[in-house]
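Q: I'm writing a short explainer about Glycosyl hydrolase family 115 for a general audience and would like to include a description of its predicted shape. Could you first generate the structure from this sequence?
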Amino acid sequence: MFKNKFNSVIIVFIVLFANAIKAQNNDFTIVSGNQKVGILVEEKEPKVVHIAAKILADDIFSITNQRLNPDSYRDAKNSSGTVIMAGTIGQSKWIDNLVSKQKITIADVKGKWETYKIQLVENPTATIKKALVIVGSDRRATAYGLLEISRMIGVSPWEWWADVTPDKKDNLVLNIQTKTFGSPSIKYRGIFLNDEDWGLQPWAAKTFEPETGDIGPKTYAKVFELLLRLRANTIWPAMHKSTKAFYSFPKNKEVADDYAIVVGTSHAEPMLSNINAEWNHNTMGEYRYDTNSATIKDFFRKRAKETAPFENIYTVGMRGEHDSPMIVGEDDSDSQVKLLEQVITDQRAILKKATGKEPNKIPQAFIPYKEVLDYYQKGLKLPDDVQLVWTDDNYGYIRQLSNLKEQTRSGGAGIYYHTSYWGRPHDYLWLNSTNPVLMWEEMAKAYEFQSRDLWILNCGDIKPHEYNIELFLDMAWDMSPFTQSQSVKKHMQNWASREFGTQNATSITDLFFDYYHLAFQRRPEFMAWNQVEPETKSGATALTQIHYGDEVSKRIDAYQKLMDATEKIKTAIPANRQNAFYELVEYPVIGAASLNHKWLYSYKNKFVAEQGRGSAAFFAKKSAEAFERIQKETHYFNNELAGGKWKNIMSMAPRHLPVFDQTTSTNAVTGTKAELKLALESYEMEVNHKTENSYADVLPVFNAYVKNQYYIDVFMKGTGTVNWQAKPKADWIKISQQQGTLDNNKNSQQRIWVSIDWDKVPQGENKKEAPLGHDYQLIPPSYKVNSAIDFVSKDTLITIGVTAFNPKFSELENYKGFIEDKGYVSINAANYSNKKDGTAAKWEAFEGVGYAGKVSVALPRTANSELDLKAIKANSPVMEYDFYSFNFGKVNVKVQAIPTHAFYEGKGVRCAVAIDDADPVILNFQTFGRSDEWLQNVLKNAAVKSAEQIVNKAGKHTLKVWMVDPGVMIDQILIDLGGWKNSYAFPPETKM
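A: Of course. Here's the predicted structure. Afterward I'll give you a sentence or two in plain language.
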């Protein structure tokens, strides 16, 4: 027995020792004391490889203050010691020698798209002891491999663009495991610089590249470096009239080629042209193909000849000038389609002649954007080798994807997606407010439907879209880690850990998820409740101030909580990351919160002024302070941050729309005598204590089954001070504040919360069934317990009635479902009581998106749609929600979904609902074109449809929601039994 134990110990020791030797052998020292590696790159390697080697050398210097050889390459024969050796298959004799000596294998790299391997090689030459070898299948792959080392040593891709200053280290030692990276999930991956008028262009022209006075080769070199660090390969250059066309600077295309960046152009820029800047009406005539095709073709020929030596993706087809429809003489669909087909035929002939290649060997993209999608749907014939680049609706919802036939096209498909947009119904150009989980869901859907050839993100001015850019491009590089909605949170946590330390990662991630949750409910730029194109004045908010806890105040508090959390986290951020924290976290959070506060406090001001409250002045002041905070932070961003590096990069008012203006304020008309006043939740007017039987002197009924709380605003009219006390007349009434002093400053109003101590309140009757009456006026007295609160000042007594509904129904003992409260039942869709999978599909939860923060999604997306009602009941997956009603009769079931679009023609965005055993009623959330319904949906990020149902008796019931189409995302449900008051969001859940 002892011998066996001894042998076991020896075996364990040997294994541990072997592992230690192995780990030691996998260590690679880049810098240690005065020792440092060399970087070997052969001179004949493509320029991008030398650029990447120089970037890596600079990154090592920024960490260690040790400068590697400045030229980034040496002769391997004369090198010794330890080196980083990078080479491209077919370009590097060093790599060929290592292969021939069987030091490395390249079968998993050679011939593949943008694939690289990193491994350690002992004694690669007679003089070199150890080499960290990077083998690339092509020029970009080798560059990516070199910059992978930058990631490994702790340099963020945002080192320059977001001032993520690396931590200083004396020694740099990596543990290298042989690994192959690639091929990427998406062939072409990149960004579109768009709406650059207010940030990138003035910054480049006045601050970074004044010698050019524009976005020129120096600026593009920095953009291209960022793309390489993010393993991207494609650019759609800036194209507004404020910026000279990309090809007007000959150096631009050379810099793009130096960095191995593929140049493409947007849907409005055929054949790499910039119609806005390059089409001269005086010398070229109208931009109309039906009347001026010869001139247009000459223009296309010139650009095709100029760009033929470089890597490009040519956009084929044609639209009008500056994002407008193409002008045609005959206003009928057939003529438009035929003309567009002729345009494409002519363009392909031009490309063949200019490049000497067959068209099917030239990357081309057709982008069915806006009206072009209509042409495509009406039968436009597109060559099979052209990429179909689908688009979102400008607000994050992809309009259409490839159907089963289109998925077999040799040209494949891609996606053009927005996190920044100028246009109808409203711009969102200032901050990044696109929910990252929504972006993941849409791109995962695109990937599943074979849109894998080109992903382009419209990221506006780059700043402040940094995180979403990285998420988008990381998914494009490798979709395999992004299998579920929770993958986004994990990705964000890793991102925050890299940028701000593991100790801050969770708090920053939680902060951002709250930030995006609020922005999903309403983007900051939409808070004026106005529209553009045509531009309208600011309007009345749809947020209720009198029901469901006061949506305006709740949003104020939520954003204040974000600001407070940001300030707290900031104190824990290391000094070398403070600028990065400001750019990546602080400015967007403070900006969004302040823009919301500006409008929310303004809505408060107008609301309370109508009641004559003295607090109107306080809310006006808070609104003004929020506006001033935006000014202050933007001034700091542009003039002081990073020593003025970002001067002119940030505008707080893109296009100077009404939402960015300072709000107006309303003064309350009050008397001179200071008076105590009250306003209660659910009442628009104040309590009139001088009138008997005031309709507003009783709080809404407190329901024991949902444990409500309601607010009372204690305020003052007139000038002076008022001391007040609140005196509950029963020990079961709880109030958040029992006394206070009102004045004409910040204490002009105080909100107290009233709740019930349900352990002390007398029990109502013990009955089997509940009473009727959603307004609770019909509830028998025996079910109610009544009392009051007296509010007392020097010369005023106001009594507020308190009613608690506290029966004990045997039917509700141990009940776990939802319950009616004041005439409605509110449900978060992911909180079903029961669910049953279908024969080929099921409901699953996506976390981090929707008003509820979690939505139910019908999956898989490849499942068949089902429209037959009998088959739906028999075979479709169903979610069931148990609820208890105190009423019966006709009810309205409202279902709120994420406003996605059908995958392709023939599919829909549908579910079916029924109460108890009724036949399913199909609800369709699909919208078409830019209809008013679509407009409201994207402003609110919600699509609501309703079905009339019958609740045949008071008591227990079950609401059922079936899948009709896969992919539909159900967010919230409201069963309105006649008591729901209009609100922006559905009321909080009414769950036992």
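A: For your explainer, you could say: Residues 9-23, 772-778 have pLDDT under 50 and may be disordered.
Q: Perfect, that's easy to follow.
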